[in-house]
């Protein structure tokens, strides 16, 4: 749902079909999954419980939902078919929030929750439950008498985590606003038992971000305490180079078992990275840079650069290649930097502004040479190309820094000097 579009009451989503981009039906919505938050803040909507043809119920993250329209939900087409399992910090909206007895903050009157509304935050892909439709008077949702009204989420009480004390819930909610690196630092200083509880309650994408920032020993410990299917899901959500780094530290049998459980495309990317020496361009690179064909326009390139999930380093430039678009690509033609894109008319072909004078890195380029390359040419990312001229991936400056800093740098409390106010 685009920013500014009408909100959706969840009762209208129950049973609606879910389609992929080609118009094929994936399944039907059976519930919505939300994460409660402290301080009266509206719950964050994590995703949908979708019943597929086999009657299996799976989890569809909201990050994979591209449209909530009249009578249907549209997805990106990428659906994980593993069975949905509810986690401690999650609430089923239809199953657990509706028909609940809560109180109005203004006067303390007890009311029954008939429905709740979801809305997408402006300029973001996050969704929240922002409105509550309630009926005054005693009795459940089937009772017809009593005034009904729609109020803000903050106008009712009875949902909050403070009233329930369930495992790691409050801790997760308190950590919600932390950046992945700061959350990783907080987890590092927890006991192993508490760390495992928090990790198990995080959603896959959030846990993947945190594992990428944790010291290696902590990441291996957490991964080892997850169910193997969940561990594979989290590895899929990680950047391929980080997943490869983590898997390379596991015993061969464990590594192979997890790779087998991963989606074939994700596993293929990770296996390719594992085939290179760790401290080389091939071992450092990500296999998911922005790749465009020569006939793409500047407008196309800018649309790709705007994608929220991209790191700043990957969004700094696009790589122009002949088909296929997935790495390893067809012939690598050159790079277009973000600043150049901003200076060109939207309809300009990227092939007409491509920079091809800088030689790309080969996958066996050693780390010191990679570092020198980035420093010499003032770049935050560099293409990695094989002998046949195919783009294999891109090395970003953050991955290089990971290997240049001391081994224990992640275990040190980050406290930049000269920062006023601590924020």
From TrEMBL:
Keyword Transmembrane in record: no
Gene3D superfamilies according to UniProt: CBS-domain, MgtE N-terminal domain-like
Keyword terms: CBS domain, Cell projection, Cilium, Flagellum
One Gene Ontology cellular component: membrane
GO molecular function per UniProt: magnesium ion transmembrane transporter activity
Residue ranges annotated for the CBS domain, each copy included: 354-412
Coiled-coil stretches noted in the UniProt entry, renumbered to this chain: none
Pfam family, one: CBS
PANTHER family recorded: MAGNESIUM TRANSPORTER MGTE (PTHR43773)
Protein name per its UniProtKB record: Flagellar motility protein MotE (MotC chaperone)/sporulation protein YlmC with PRC-barrel domain
Upper classification of the organism: Bacteria, Bacillati, Actinomycetota, Actinomycetes, Kitasatosporales
């Amino acid at each position: 749902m685009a920013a500014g579009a009408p909100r959706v009451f969840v009762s209208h989503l129950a049973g609606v079909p879910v389609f992929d981009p080609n118009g094929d039906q994936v399944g039907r919505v059976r519930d919505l999954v939300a994460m409660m938050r402290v301080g009266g803040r509206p719950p964050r909507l994590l995703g949908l419980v979708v019943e597929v043809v086999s009657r299996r119920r799976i989890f569809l993250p909201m990050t994979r939902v591209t449209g909530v329209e009249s009578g249907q939900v549209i997805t990106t087409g990428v659906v994980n078919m593993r069975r949905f399992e509810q986690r401690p910090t999650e609430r089923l909206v239809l199953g657990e929030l509706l028909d609940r007895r809560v109180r109005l903050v203004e006067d303390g009157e007890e009311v029954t929750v008939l429905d709740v509304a979801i809305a997408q935050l402006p300029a973001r892909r996050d969704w929240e439950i922002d409105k509550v439709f309630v009926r005054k008077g005693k009795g459940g949702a089937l009772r017809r008498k009593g005034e009904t009204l729609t109020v803000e989420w903050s106008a009712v009480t009875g949902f909050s985590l403070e009233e329930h004390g369930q495992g790691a819930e409050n801790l997760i909610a308190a950590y919600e606003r932390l950046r992945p690196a700061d959350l990783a630092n907080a987890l590092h200083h927890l006991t192993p038992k508490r760390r495992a509880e928090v990790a198990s309650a995080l959603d896959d994408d959030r846990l993947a971000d945190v594992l990428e920032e944790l010291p290696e020993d902590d990441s291996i410990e957490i991964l080892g305490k997850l169910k193997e299917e969940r561990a594979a899901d989290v590895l899929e959500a990680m950047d391929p180079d980080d997943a490869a780094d983590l898997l390379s530290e596991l015993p061969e049998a464990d590594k192979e078992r997890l790779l087998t459980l991963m989606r074939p495309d994700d596993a293929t990317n990770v296996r390719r990275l594992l085939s290179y020496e760790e401290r080389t361009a091939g071992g450092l690179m990500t296999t998911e840079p922005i790749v465009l064909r020569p006939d793409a326009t500047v407008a196309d390139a800018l649309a790709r650069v705007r994608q929220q999930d991209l790191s700043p380093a990957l969004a700094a430039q696009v790589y122009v290649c002949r088909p296929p678009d997935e790495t390893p690509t067809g012939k690598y033609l050159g790079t277009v930097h973000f600043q150049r894109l901003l200076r060109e008319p939207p309809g300009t072909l990227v092939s007409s502004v491509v920079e091809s004078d800088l030689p790309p890195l080969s996958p066996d380029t050693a780390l010191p040479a990679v570092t020198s390359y980035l420093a010499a040419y003032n770049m935050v990312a560099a293409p990695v190309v094989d002998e046949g001229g195919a783009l294999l991936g891109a090395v970003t400056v953050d991955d290089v820094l990971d290997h240049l800093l001391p081994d224990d740098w992640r275990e040190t409390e980050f406290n930049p000097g000269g920062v006023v106010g601590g924020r």
